[in-house]
Structure prediction request, 334 residues.
Amino acid sequence: MVKVVNVRFRSAGKVYTFSTGDLEVKKGDHCIVETVRGKEMGKVVSDPAEKDEKTLNPNSPLRSIIRVATEEDRENDRKNREKEKEAIKICKEKIRKHELEMKLIDAEYTFDNSKLLFYFTADGRIDFRELVKDLAAVFRTRIELRQIGVRDETKILGGYGPCGRELCCHSYLSDFVPVSIRMAKDQDLSLNPTKISGVCGRLMCCLKNEEDTYEYLNKKLPGVGDLVADPQGEEGTVTEVNVLRQRIKVLFETEDEKEIREYPAEEITFKAKRKKGQNQQKNKQEKEPDEPLPKELLEEDFPEGERNAASGGPEQKEKNENRKRNRRKKHKDG
Prediction:
């Protein structure tokens, strides 16, 4: 067993696990640790916990905290933040000088100044070799340029969403979760891109927050257009579904008259929905044809005697069919 804590280096950044060793560390402390980039100062975001080394990530060795940050360390970190602002100005000038189609987002010094990282966005690949040489001559340290996406850009710069709160990715999301347009459909949201897109121009991360709840509630409800029956057994068509209130509006047609009535979901009888996996398997079987066989497998490779007898009796035909099936199976199995 080993005592470990979780450490974060950036606001809403990824969390890494370090051993406390013989140090007394508590949540909220700043500490100096050794990383693949060099020495870094991070913030402890969890209380110490005893864990078995076998349960930790075997691909990355468990590193130990060097020391709890002193006031001198904090001052050094503040100086680095000031130096980063100056580094951004110089880098922008160098980018204009080399006429590169790239947008500089941020600069970051490691705690021991052994490396200076620049983050940028660009539409395509950028040849920045000459830029790196110029920057290395100015800063006299190792230079690294990293191209990031629009979501990472928004995470670094921060801002406020249409809800009026600080962006989720900048405030607490450590990793970006997969978000799809299906989540907006399940939550009955407008599919207008301007209403379901975040500051970054991609689908809002918060669509994932309530997706599990909507998936659970939708399992108990029919879809718009489904045929349902009311408590008296009269059949009608669903025209509107209120997922959160669990109420359904049903259209009934009798001769020339139409009537819409609203019912609680538990009073309505309808055919249960298929599970997602069943639908996918069914569609796959219906829509996807068998993979065509190579030409050499389509040609019968019988001995001359069997080739002539291929059109013979039913026993010979059955043997030929079995041979074909076996070849198809071998081909699919690879």
In short: The chain is about 35% helix and 25% strand. The first helix runs from residue 71 to 98.
